[in-house]
Amino acid sequence: MQHSSFEPKSDAGGELRQVRIEPVFPTPTQTDEFPWSPAAAKRRLVHGFDSRNASSRSFNLIRSKLVTLHRERGWRLLGVASATPNVGKSFVSSNVAAAMSRDPRFQTYLLDLDLRRGTIKDIFGIETDDGIVKYLEQPDAPAVLPGFMPQGQELIIIPSVAGPVHSAELLASERATALFRAMRISEERNYFICDLPPVFANDDAAIIMEALDGYVIVAQDGKTTQREIAATVEMLGHERLAGVVLNKYRGGLVSEGYGIEDRYASEYYANADSEGAEA
Fold this sequence. Notes:
Blueprint: E1 6-10, E2 16-20, E3 32-34, H1 38-44, H2 57-73, E4 77-81, H3 89-100, E5 107-112, H4 120-124, H5 132-137, E6 148-150, E7 156-158, H6 167-171, H7 174-185, E8 190-195, H8 204-209, E9 214-220, H9 226-236, E10 241-247, E11 259-260, H10 262-278
Parallel strand pairs: 3-6, 4-8, 4-9, 5-7, 5-8, 9-10, 10-11
Antiparallel strand pairs: 1-2
Helix pairs in contact: 2-3
């Protein structure tokens, strides 16, 4: 049973009227552009925008797999998940979205659906207090979702601002249902990459995956166990698994996944640690 795209609201006379809650995904002209450059990309470890950069190779391969799944199965709503925190999930989400945004057949959106611990805005250096949580929490939030674009790029980022929110309740709300419906019925060329919360932190990822087409799992070599990967697949569904990305993997490509070399991931964690210490 589908939820309505409207919610009741009382007017001054006490009568109920219907208020539209289905959001609108911003077009490039409706976004806020923020400064971006090759130097910023290198500093922030967002390699996916530059196909000439050897560091983008793994993400280009993942993009190719996603394009194939789009062609064969019609998948265009993809989640990026991990069993546990701190394995580079948002780093991978950001770079896969950057690589995907270079394909002119798609308008790529990167959504931060980790409502409690979202870091996408920090990875890109977006300064805002606006995001998906505001739409989910506030009935009078603007219809057009807040979107941000790196200068000179085609990726549209819809961030979250981390905070102690009741994420499960928000994600099960009618406003969340309207958000996912808006993704589904949007233009066919729109491709959505959703950064999900860690699967075993709470049930948020499982709630979100009810609305998506498929997902990839990010695992950290030497940290994420086979049992954790298997349990994640069991929870989210094997038939919707697009692959497993082994972050910090040193041996090249692996079955059902792609290696991301250790030196890139190590630099990412070193930067994140230093930024956290400064904060």
